[in-house]
Amino acid sequence: MSESINQKGAGAGLWLALIAFESAAQVALKLGGDGLAAVPFGLGWVLAGLSNFAVLAAVGCYIGSFLSWMLILRRSHLSLAFPLSSIVLVVVLLMSWLGLGEQIGGWHWVGVGLIMVGVGTLAER
């Protein structure tokens, strides 16, 4: 019995890691892209990106996301795991609104609600 609880806890931890890494990567890429906006695209832009903290943080987050996703897929069906990963869309929208001050319209919130209904439906499976 405790083994089952430990497995569920590990699974929840992996999902939290995936959501955190993937969401942070998106915000870091936005910040990195904003920081590189004045640099013309080319070799200089690539080199500037390689020294941009936000871009490097995004790469690190993507590595964490990849590792989390691989471990999730070891224990889950792709047909269930992939739709559940859409919770990242909701978290990125919230981080964009709360952390970056982006304006979020009514249709965005409708979309968030639909995603949450879908995730809740799949989680019951």
Structure description:
The protein is mainly alpha-helical. It has one domain. Helix content is 82%, strand content 0%. It has helices at 2-35, 43-50, 53-75, 78-84, 87-98, 106-123. The radius of gyration is 17 Å and the shape is flat. Residues 1-6 have low confidence and may be disordered.
Describe this protein with a few key phrases:
125 residues, mainly alpha, 6 helices, 82% helix, single chain, disordered N terminus, 0% strand
How would you sum up the major sheet? none
Distance between the amino and carboxyl termini: 21 Å
Total number of strands = 0
- Total count of helical runs of at least 4 residues: 6
Instruction: Report the principal-axis shape.
Output: flat
- Show unreliable segments: 1-6
Protein structure class? mainly alpha
Helix content: over 70%
Overall domain count: 1
- Give the mean pLDDT: 89
The rounded Rg comes to 17 Å
Percentage beta strand: under 5%
H/E series: HHHHHH
